[in-house]
Amino acid sequence: MLEARGLTFGYERDRPIIVGWEARFEAGEVVAITGPSGRGKSTLLYLLGLMLKPFSGELRLADVEVGTMRDADRARLRASQFGFVFQDAALDPTRTVLDNVTETSLYRDADLRADQIRAQELMEQFGVDLRARAKPGQVSGGQAQRIALCRALLNRPRVLLADEPTGNLDPASADVVVGAFHDHAATGAAVVVVTHDPALVARCHRRIEL
Amino acid sequence: MRRVRALLRESIATARSSRVASIVTIVMIAGMCAAVLLTTGRTVGAEQAVISTLDSAGTRSIVIRAEADAGLQADVLNRIANLEGIAWAGAFGPAVDATNALNLDGMRVPVRLAYGADLDDLGIRTGVGVPGEAVWGSPPALDQLGLSDDVGSLVTTSGLDYAVVGSLATPDYLRFLEPLAIAPQAEQPDAPLSVLVVIAARPDLVAPVSQALLSVLAVDDPTGITLSTSESIATLRALIEGQLGSFGRELVLAIFALTGVLVAAILSGLTALRRKDFGRRRALGASRGLIVALLLTQMALLSITGAALGTGGALIALTLIGDPLPGLPFVAAVAVLATAVGLVAALAPALAAATRDPIRELRVP
Question: Which pTM was predicted?
Answer without folding.
Answer: 0.66
